[in-house]
Specification:
This protein is of the alpha/beta class. The chain is 40% helix and 18% strand. The protein is globular, with a radius of gyration of 17 Å.
């Protein structure tokens, strides 16, 4: 399969970096803190901003209480990097994009301390452009994060390819107007017929270009 784009937008957790263990470890500690079932929390959290999850499980909490939980979680997650590693193909793909001069950004629901810490812990190249929790008024699955990601590259969303692993992020990117490549096949994947490709690993992706119009060609190989 071949796709064309002028820019590339990447989710971080579960797409570029494997941080599953630390995410679930910290959120289970939060579950203990409020007396909530671990599995219920794990089933809900992925791809969503932390505050969205806090409001879901603490619907009657005051803003002060929510902020207190948020700060506690941010501290826990920003200090715990045990087991965070780059997912297969991530470092090579980002390095290739840098070599080609292709614009790319990380679009994550994480805060700056968490996102920057995990990027560094995984040894991934540093992006020139970030969209983090602090920059959005509405997080995934709202289209705003990927709209801002495309804007940071000075491109319309339809000229960008977004890489996502979570249903909330896939919905966000599609609603923003991006072409979407789903990394893995998440349970409950929305709008499957609108997704450009579903891959098992970023090792399946190669990129060439740009052409005279600034487009890069992205090739999706079969499962490796």
């Amino acid at each position: 399969m071949k796709l064309k784009a002028k820019g590339f937008l990447f989710d971080l957790d579960g797409t570029l970096a494997d941080s599953l263990a630390v995410v679930e470890r910290c959120w289970c500690l939060f579950g203990d803190r409020i007396g909530e079932d671990h599995q219920a929390i794990i089933d809900y959290i992925h791809g969503k901003p932390a505050m969205t999850t806090l409001r879901h499980f603490l619907p009657n909490a005051s803003e002060e209480e929510l902020q207190s939980h948020f700060c506690w979680l941010e501290k826990m997650e920003s200090e715990d990097m045990d087991g965070v590693v780059a997912l297969p193909g991530a470092t090579a793909l980002l390095s290739l994009l840098n070599k080609l001069g292709a614009p790319w950004a990380i679009v994550t629901s994480g805060t700056v301390p968490i996102a920057h810490g995990r990027r560094a812990a995984a040894g991934l190249p540093e992006p020139k452009h970030w969209v983090t929790f602090e920059k959005v008024s509405k997080g995934k699955p709202d289209p705003e994060p990927f709209q801002l990601g495309a804007k940071s590259l000075e491109l319309p969303p339809e000229e960008c390819i977004a890489f996502e692993d979570a249903p909330a992020g896939i919905h966000s990117a599609l609603s923003a107007g991006c072409q979407v490549i789903a990394v893995h096949d998440p349970e409950g994947m929305p709008r499957r017929d609108e997704i450009s490709a579903i891959i098992s690993t970023l090792e399946q992706i190669s990129v060439t270009g740009p052409d005279n119009n600034g487009y890069f060609e992205l090739f999706v190989s079969k499962n490796v």
